Amino acid sequence: MDKKLEPVVKALQDKFGAAFEEFRGEVHAFITVEQIIEALTLLRDEHEFELLSALTAVDYWPQESPRFHVIYQLSSLAKNVTLQLRVPVNGGQPKVPTATRVYDVANWREREVFDMFGIEFEGHPDPRRILMPEGTEGYPLRKDFPLGYEEPQFTFNFEEIDLRKPYAKE
Amino acid sequence: MAQIEEVSIEQYKHLVSERALTGETMLLNMGPQHPSTHGVLRLLLELDGEVIVNAIPDIGFLHTGVEKNMEAKTYQKAEVMCDRLDYMNTVGNNLSYCLAVEKLVDLDVPERAQAIRVVLTELQRIASHLVWVGTFGLDLAAMSMFLYAFRERELILDILELCSGQRMMTTYIRPGGLWRDVPVEFEAAVRNFIKIFPKRVDEYENLLTKNPIFLDRLLGIGKLTKETALSHGVTGPSLRASGVNWDLRKARPYSGYEQYDFNVPVRTEGDTYARYLVRIQEFRESLKIVEQALNKLPMGPVRSDNRKFVPPPRSEIGVSMESLIHHFKLWTEGFPAPKASIYSAVESPRGELGVYLEGDGGPKPYRVHWRTPSFDNLSVIPKIVKGHLVADLVGILASIDIVLGDIDR
């Protein structure tokens, strides 16, 4: 672990009882949903993490519970270190408080996570889909959302498949 | 007939001012088919006469589900999808993806491959900035700029074609090295470019930098403060034009960038003109890196000889049973990556291009997320265009240098 990260890790451990893991020099801290905004504010104000580099999620359905991990990748320009916060979120009705008041960039990134995973960000100022069209059903990056293939049509089943194809018929 | 939905003001109620609801200000749709939006970006503008009160970007027209598609392919095969993200920076996208895969599976890259990677990504950075300076001029009515910039870009695309057979979607950089070594004509072609290009940059500057019409349109327009930029996750030249000296090539060097001597241009004004100056200066700095990397291009292999991840050379397959097995296994099944996640970032022409890559022990990525710089850079637009004229919006948008493929993924 980078020496400059040690005080940060200690602060997170003392204040939030965060668990840590390390892989190839990258440090991941596990924070609970209730504490995430407090943790982000602490890191921004006291440990100079000015930049929220990435905000995304991973779906571990069906093998793991809680189902989602929301990931906050933070960078500190002053200290030149990075830190990843992971927030496990239950499936069902996943909800996370919004980080838009801490980092403005969270606005669009949270809309993207909502669009792709259906994770709701409570208190978000503009909770609309961002990439998919309005009225899309389902959340594409969830593991139970099919990738989608077109059925190959042969002579014997051409008409049968044609009937249930989604595009407009005359 | 497709159903046409009427757009009502109701759904944008929380984003526009109260004057829009009474009809005092006008809502105007700009794009998605508008030449100055650099792709398919739609902006909903709230206007008070010609002055912008609010701008609401609407993106997603180019959304192709790259992240989902990559989950269904092996690590080698998923690489071709990343060329299509930021189509102005294809080599850089390959580099960021390969660095992520190499970090995940702990794979070494020979020095020659690293140096060639640097040469090509820096050339690609110049090509990307050339498209930017061309369209920037075009948007501000300096039309000849576009023609000159594309003339030079052609030289770079020729070099890419020489190496990979492709002008744009090269997929030349592969996990563990390169697809193959560069051809013998490579060095002469790059040297020719190094010889020609500095004079051409001077020509661009003669055309634009002190042009009074150009200055009138840029000075003091679209001011982006340091704090707003950082909070909105703006990176790259746009951040450096706001006085933050942050370049991942210096801060967290990869592919041997620490060996090269170059400066990071920084301006403090934060306006559209500062962003222009930073990028013009980056032309010269990138060229410096290309020249240094070319001068000390080491000899040796261009692919790692770790056969568990990198396919053996074609010549070995005919004579070695083991090579044949490796070749077969790698191209049918792929290589497994550990059940772990990494985040790796490189400096693209637009900013921090990050990849979050997670493996699950199998040959396909469990999750790939692209932290694309244009997405975050665009999100600051509504803030900095307020109070400017519609004509200035065009310049501000161009100065941020967005690529819609990069935004929508």
Structural class of chain A: alpha/beta
Derived from helix and strand composition plus strand pairing, the structural class of chain B reads mainly alpha
Number of helices, counting only DSSP H or I runs of 4 residues or more of chain A: 4
CATH topology of the largest domain in chain B: Cytochrome-c3 Hydrogenase, chain B
Overall number of domains of chain B = 2
What do we call the CATH homologous superfamily of the largest domain in chain B?
Answer: Cytochrome-c3 Hydrogenase, chain B
Q: What is the topology, as strand order, of the major beta sheet of chain B?
A: 1-2-3
Q: Note poorly predicted spans of chain B.
A: none
Task: Give the DSSP E fraction of chain A (strand runs of 2 or more residues).
Answer: 25-35%
User: Which CATH class of chain A?
Assistant: Alpha Beta
Portion in helices of chain B: 40-55%
Using the alpha-carbon principal axes, give the shape of chain A: elongated
Descriptive overview:
- The complex is a heterodimer of chains A (170) and B (409).
- Chain A is of the alpha/beta class.
- Chain A has a single domain, classed as Beta Polymerase, domain 2, CATH 3.30.460.80.
- Chain A is built from 4 helices and 7 strands.
- Chain A has a 5-stranded mixed β-sheet with strand order 1-2-5-4-3, covered by helices on one side. In chain A, strands 6-7 form a two-stranded parallel sheet.
- Chain A is elongated, with a radius of gyration of 20 Å.
- Chain A starts with 5 loop residues before the first helix and ends in a 7-residue tail after the last helix.
- Chain B is mainly alpha-helical and 409 residues long.
- Chain B folds into 2 domains: 9-58, no CATH class; 66-305 and 335-408, Cytochrome-c3 Hydrogenase, chain B.
- Chain B is built from 18 helices and 8 strands.
- In chain B, the strands form 3 sheets. Chain B has a 3-stranded antiparallel β-sheet.
- The relative contact order of chain B is 0.17.
- At the A-B interface, strand 3, strand 4 and helix 3 of A face helix 2, helix 9, strand 6, strand 7 and strand 8 of B.
